[in-house]
Design goal:
seven-stranded mixed sheet, 31% helix, 199 residues, binds guanosine-5'-triphosphate, alpha/beta, binds magnesium ion
Length: 199
């Protein structure tokens, strides 16, 4: 079993230039309300480390967490919680700022090892998710798709849904990591993958 991450909040920033350097970083992106902050809490087995909210758009900054200070390789390993895209109620100017903030971060962050793209397992990949995947592919940025809220997909639907999510993302079913932050599904697998990306 992969033990929970020991996460420490480092800082929130508006720009990548304001963040402290990291030796290796994994970042979570996904549409607003997809469950990014919930998953960070679940990986750490904590309740309120990252802010979870029913109000979409709660996470508005680049939030940096340090993982297990005692890692043997030296330097900082970190995890980023990014603001969700596609928050429908946000004013256009704000949406543009968020888009720019995320894009600049993804292009400029040094030692970014993996972008974890969260898609809602209940809703399936949205047009914006597919746009994000296309953008990451075009820029040759390493990424992995995680499907969230597995507990909310009825068990009779799960196989069909797995197929749908994978085919829309143009991936194999086995490439997609299904998780439930609520029920703890898939967390061990994801922690193990993250450790290998960060080491
Ligand atoms: P923004 O910060 O707005 O970008 O959202 P976010 O992606 O960080 O989502 P957040 O973690 O705040 O979760 C949004 C809602 O989904 C909350 O009401 C969570 O309780 C719920 N949620 C997240 N993960 C799960 C899950 O695995 N199962 C269920 N049933 N609900 C979940
Ligand atoms: Mg959040």
């Amino acid at each position: 079993m992969a033990p929970p991450f020991k996460l420490t909040f480092v800082q929130s920033a508006e720009r990548v230039s304001q963040l402290p350097p990291t030796r290796s970083e994994v970042t979570f992106v996904g549409r607003s309300n997809v469950g990014k902050s919930s998953l960070i809490n679940a990986l750490a087995n904590r309740k309120n480390l990252a802010h979870v909210s029913n109000t979409p758009g709660r996470t508005r900054l680049l939030n940096m967490f340090e993982i297990d200070k005692s890692w043997p390789t030296g330097g900082v390993a970190s995890l980023m919680d990014l603001p969700g895209y596609g928050f429908a109620k946000a004013p256009a100017a704000m949406k543009q700022n968020w888009g720019k903030m995320i894009e600049t971060y993804l292009l400029e962050r040094e030692n970014l090892q993996m972008v974890v793209v969260l898609v809602d397992g209940v809703v399936g990949p949205t047009a914006l998710d597919l746009q994000m995947l296309g953008w990451l592919r075009a820029h040759e940025i390493d990424h992995t798709v995680v499907a969230t809220k597995q507990d909310k997909v009825k068990s009779a639907q799960r196989n069909k849904r797995k197929f749908e999510v994978a085919s829309k993302c143009e991936l194999e079913e086995g490439d997609i990591v299904w998780v439930s932050s609520e029920k703890g599904v898939g967390l061990d697998r994801l922690r193990t993958m993250m450790r290998s990306w960060l080491s």
